[in-house]
Amino acid sequence: MRQRICIYKGAIKMVEEIKEIKEKHQGMWLAIKVTERDKYNKPIKGEILASARTHHELHIELEDPNVYETYAGELPVKAVLF
Fold first, then answer.
1. Cβ pair 56, 40 in contact under 8 A
2. Could you read off the pLDDT of 48-77 as tens digits, one per residue?
3. CB-CB contact of 51 with 9 (8 Å)
4. In sequence order, which ranges of the chain are alpha helices (DSSP H)?
5. Beta partners for 8?
6. pTM of the predicted model, to two decimals?
7. Using DSSP, how many helices (H) and how many strands (E) does the chain show?
8. Under a CB-based contact definition with an 8 Å cutoff, are residues 50 and 5 in contact?
9. Among residues 12, 49, 61, 74, which is most buried (max CB within 10 A)?
């Protein structure tokens, strides 16, 4: 079975601006460890932990309240969010 989720274990961790992470991973669901927030508590910097084609795959693999799950791009019209 082909793996649908990419987990960045063992990779060199690099803190980046979240907008830059999203630009690099267009069209993917991302799990990002937040390292910095703005004055409104919005995540602005972090380290990518995993990426997947669907939110469900990502969420099941990384069910962790300290991980920011986001979509890199415009949300698909037929997306099921939970």
1. no
2. 988 888 887 887 777 666 678 888 888 766
3. no
4. 18-24, 55-61
5. none
6. 0.69
7. 2, 5
8. yes
9. 49
